[in-house]
Write the structure tokens for this entry.
Amino acid sequence: MMMSEEQRIQELRALKIIAESLNQANNLETMLDGVLSELLHVTGLQTGWIYLIDENNNSTLVADHRLPEALIRENKKPMCKGGCWCLDQYKDGRLKRASNIIACKRLEDAIKFQQGDTDNITHHATVPLRAGEEKFGLLNVAAPNKTHFSDTELALLESVAFQIGTAIKRIKLAENEQQLLVIAERNRLARDLHDSVNQLLFSLMLTARGTKELTEDAKIKEMLSYMQELSQEALSEMRALIWQLRPQGLENGLVSALLNYGKVLGMEIDYEVKGIVDIPTHMEECLWRVGQEAFNNCKKHADTRKAFLRIKVENKQLIFEIEDLGTGFCVSQSASLPSLGLTSMKERTEAAGGVFKVSSKLGQGTKVQIEMPVNKEEKR
């Protein structure tokens, strides 16, 4: 069916509005929610939803509008749990362009098990979000009793999906650039600390040591010795801080970096590694920071300079443990953790998608454990 001039003008206007919205957006979820709303408005469709799908084929519902009752029950559980045919086709590479109609397994299950009103929606069109060869997720749209999308409708959906994919890539590149700027600033601060404060502390320690040789007064010698010890401790703390800002050796792997950091603290670290996999940068950064905090706690509070590092992979779970046999402490049964450092480790772990656990008993040491899902193949 030929498109009328009025329909063509309406489509171009819709693409213009959506393009302007995408070009101005910096927040991914806000952008997707706004574009989906605008798309449904200009097409006259009732409902739609967007999944983002990562490199490990984990899908996340990031935007939706006017979902039927059957799909929003229990905080949208039907949309967030289980698989469906459109996701299966996306993941195995069969879905490359806008697909006219795909019967919705989630809606079929809702009808079969009488889980709520479906608004007479049984099928949907689905379009992959992509920029070039890079894929980001799926756009789905539907309307009551609609069992066919015209070529014109599919062309519009593909145009919008391509614009969304390009915007997603732009935002991700901007986020990566921001992360690089943060790393550059950390490195600059680390250099400044090394060149200024670190050198001043070293000079203070040498001055205290030299001044001791110029006096015979026992009390003055004692005070200078104490000053020398404080300078040495401050110098050690500063070196550790510089390592935290600029993780030298992380490029050689997480284990190497943590072992080297342990040496900086003057600790003896035994380690065991089983079935290591490649992990995303944000997970490696999380484990690096948690490992630093755990080793610092060993040195400052556990009254021991010996610790154990274990990393293993079991059933697609990465298990990261740091344990000491030091003084230990009483772990409260309440939800709160006893220190800011432990709370920070827990928050950092959960932000990276992991589960944080700490166990300790007085006189029996402390163990910090992190579990994170991994989906990449093991190195052999």
Summary: The chain has a mean pLDDT of 81. The longest helix spans residues 151-195.
